Amino acid sequence: MQQFFRIAGSCLAVLLVITVRGYAQNNLSAGDIVIASYQSDKDLSNSDLGGTTAYTDRFSIVVTKSGGLAAGTIVYFTDNGWNASTGNFITGLSEGFIKWTVPTGGIAFGKEVFFISSYNDPATSWNAWLNENGTSTAGTVTTESGTNYMELSSGGDQLLAYQTGPTAGPASTYNNTTRRFLTAVHANVETNVTTYAAWDGTTPAGGHQSSLPTGLTNGTNAFLLSQTTLPVATVGSGEYDNGKYNGTGATTCSVTSLVTAVNTPANYVLSNTAFAIGATSNHTVFTLNNPVTIGTNPVVQSVCNGLTAAYSVAATGSGALSYQWQQSADAAFTSPVTLANNSIYNGVTTSALSILDNTGLSGKYYRAVVTNTCGPVNSNGATLTLNASLPTSAASLTQAVNTNNNLYYSSPCALITKVTPSGANAVSGNITSKVWIESSVPVAVGQPFVARHYEITPATNAATATGTVTLYFTQAEFNAFNAAPGSSLDLPTGPADNLGKTNLRVGKFSGTSNNGTGLPASYTQGAIVIDPNDADIVWNSTYSRWEVSVSVTGFSGFIIQTSTAPLPLNLISFSGHLTNSDVVLKWQTESEINHDHFEVERSTNGQNFVTVGRVAGVNTSGLQNYSFTDANAAQLSGSRLYYRLKMVSTKNEEEYSKIVTITLSDAGSPVINVTPNPFTGYVKVTVQMPEAAQLTIRLSDVTGKTLKTQHLPVAKGETIIPVTGIDQLVNGIYLLSVQYNGRMYTYKLVK
């Protein structure tokens, strides 16, 4: 007994395994298989027709379920018609039902399986084969309806394929009331009754009639084997015994379209005689192409204005892929623009789009349309954002000509200049572009110029190369210039100020700055003034900046001014001292251009000046030293004399120097001058000694407190004595005393 229970338990375990595996089979849906051929006339290989087989009827199916059919899957076939009104098979008939079990290894997608019946009196049996001639089995087929055999009638019939059982898996019985029809073919036409949509209507009768089975649609996953307009009035009209799919639409991109193609009656070869041996099927090769799949979409680009941008897409799909890039003003691509290769775009029919010059394209969207035999697929759109600001501090960049569309950006997207090769000797090679922004409106020899100024230097042929230069400025910088003392003509006050454009001039200083400041005084190779075309003075409303373009020969420093002449010279220094009764004035210049002469002017009150002398200008580049002696000036009344230089150009344009103050010393004082006054960090005491002697220099505040004392021997003649270490003193009034020959000479200083 104990042994019996062990054996019974083992049998139960095996039964459970078989049952579980059965319910794990494919649970199929309509369209997972299709009927590719149907033949109800006796097979031509039958011995009754001179052949060697007992074959009678045949049909074939093609697996259209993605992934194929799993081993052990059960499918039922019957020629019993369906009654739509009762929701059941037509009763009272002797039609047959067969069960097909999918073999080990399953049946792959697109594989055709041939079902052939054999009649051996008195029974009809069916087998499934992997080939048309029936030599390679494809699973097992059993008759489930006893002595009622499934036989396809040439007088009109149908073939229905279905599964039974709950959705968890097919039932093992053919007559389970839960049925799921998979596909069907109807080869019967009733006069004035049969239609494609409903077949033989909702209340068919007889073994050759059938409603369209529940869940199926003619022309989609089932079909009526006719190509005649229905219904018909003539008996037998439009009814065919045999048909085979002709292969139209067998290569496609979706299972749905493939199933529809096979269930379209127009895609069948129809006949009322059996097909030739070996030609009962079209043996169609079914190919399911993969539609385009976008693996990597274009990504948003945020780049500098006027430079390049790039988008790319990665896609897969069957066959050759083609690409077409589009642009749109909105993310929905409401009105997409198909791009063409031109000076702006390149690679528009490839997977990588290059935008060669992105100027004006900010806010646009780009996508790729990728196409294969399955049709086009759009990638996601990606926007283009352009950035451009002006540097807020000094910046420099060196790059080769024709790089970055000749725009010179410092990081991040701060635009310095644009330098474009043009003219007879177009600039080439590396170019260095520099910009400086002064904290206030700078002045050179009394003439203001805009705080933002530039230097552009090619590595080769800097003096003779030609090109077009674009310089950039803010409206605030023009406004500051207009408000500066000495600004007699205004630069544009806004985009519509045409007079301001007319006033604008570009000062061009040849060479390079000798001290790295970029200021006019640091250039020593001459200067010219360029009057740009007003049309080349442009307000860019997108980036709120002025753009000034000029064509040049030779490269240099560039400033914006309104003076129509170049700044005529650079006055490096101007000083004076008292020698006995004479005032000796000395000054130094460089870069004299179009300079004619100096007029020396003197005043006793610092307000009213008279000309006391004239000195001709050298009018050449390089350092020049000048001097002028105002003889017996110390005999004039007053304690101080004031001097200035009036600098006159060859065009009679005038500029003035700073004012130099000469203190008329007490008799016996060796002090010629104490400068600067006011002072900041140091003071220079200039003395003229009749003989070598000891001096004491003392600095004190207004309370008499001594802050600094120097004792030093001084040689005969003129000597400059620096007083240093006073840069930390607070602003105020101080007294500097010089003790000589027992006398004290005191001078008031201001910090």
TrEMBL record:
Residues making up the signal peptide according to the UniProt record: none
Annotated ranges, domain Secretion system C-terminal sorting: 676-750
Pfam family, one: Por_Secre_tail
Superkingdom assignment: Bacteria
NCBIfam families for the chain: Por_Secre_tail (TIGR04183)
Protein name: Secretion system C-terminal sorting domain-containing protein
